[in-house]
């Protein structure tokens, strides 16, 4: 019996409990960096995530940065998304690391691509409601090959804010159902739809215009 107990004690000493990752976890909706005391992650969360988002409202000349740092998984890592809804433009970048408290450095937003890719989407934006009316065709740029429609509620940084966006976006924003840009508990996605971008039907338009001119000439 004593030999059995001795063996169990030795085995217990050899078993070292696993330790989970610790990361910065904070949100600042008005600046490009934030800091916090390290937080212990869940065992399924293998990476420290930093997501920086830049939103530009050309109508009011507003250019705002926001940062989210959290525990996460590899699927949240290393994505750059772009959204274009006419007056509203957004670009996000996520960066990850997998050592304790490693998501402390400041990250920077890359320059947004401005070259048209030949696609377009109907667009509109509302910063105060979950609905907006499609008002214009917006030309998609760079890797924006999807048309998106989504409604999101922002629950951090002051009073609750409702937002609606229709416009062009990159595929990875669709693949994550908006999570790549609106990450964490500060955002509640109400609805999210995605479809392929549209190419202008120039040939059909010219044919219709030619037919109309012939009708006018011979009527």
Automatic annotation (TrEMBL):
Localisation per UniProt entry: Secreted
Q: A Gene Ontology MF term for this entry?
A: phospholipase A2 inhibitor activity
Its domain of life?
Eukaryota
* Main location group: secreted
Pfam families of this UniProt entry?
UPAR_LY6
Q: Name one GO cellular component term.
A: extracellular region
Residue ranges spanning the membrane: these are none
How far does the signal peptide extend, from start to end residue? Answer: 1-20
Residue intervals of the UPAR/Ly6 domain: 20-104, 117-183
Alphabetically list the UniProt keywords.
Answer: Phospholipase A2 inhibitor, Secreted, Signal
The record's section on PANTHER family has: COILED, ISOFORM A, LY6/PLAUR DOMAIN-CONTAINING PROTEIN 8
Under which name does UniProt file this protein?
Phospholipase A2 inhibitor and Ly6/PLAUR domain-containing protein-like isoform X1
Q: Which organism is it from?
A: Microcaecilia unicolor
């Amino acid at each position: 019996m004593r030999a059995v107990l001795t063996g169990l004690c030795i085995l217990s000493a050899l078993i070292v409990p696993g330790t989970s990752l610790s990361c910065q976890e904070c949100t600042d909706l008005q600046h490009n960096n934030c800091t916090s005391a390290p937080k212990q992650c869940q065992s399924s969360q293998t990476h420290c995530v930093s997501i920086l988002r830049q939103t530009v409202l050309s109508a009011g000349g507003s250019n705002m940065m926001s940062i989210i740092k959290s525990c996460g998984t590899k699927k949240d890592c290393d994505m750059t998304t772009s959204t274009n809804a006419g007056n509203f433009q957004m670009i996000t970048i996520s960066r990850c690391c997998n050592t304790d408290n490693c998501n402390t450095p400041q990250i920077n937003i890359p320059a947004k691509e401005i070259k048209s890719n030949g696609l377009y989407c109907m667009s509109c934006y509302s910063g105060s409601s979950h609905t907006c009316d499609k008002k214009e065709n917006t030309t998609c740029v760079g890797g924006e090959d999807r048309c998106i429609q989504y409604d999101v509620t922002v629950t951090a940084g002051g009073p609750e804010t409702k937002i609606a966006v229709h416009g062009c976006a990159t595929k990875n924003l669709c693949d994550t159902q908006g999570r790549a840009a609106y990450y964490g508990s500060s955002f509640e996605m109400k609805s999210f739809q995605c479809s392929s971008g549209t190419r202008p039907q120039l040939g059909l338009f010219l044919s219709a215009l030619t037919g109309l001119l012939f009708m006018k000439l011979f009527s």
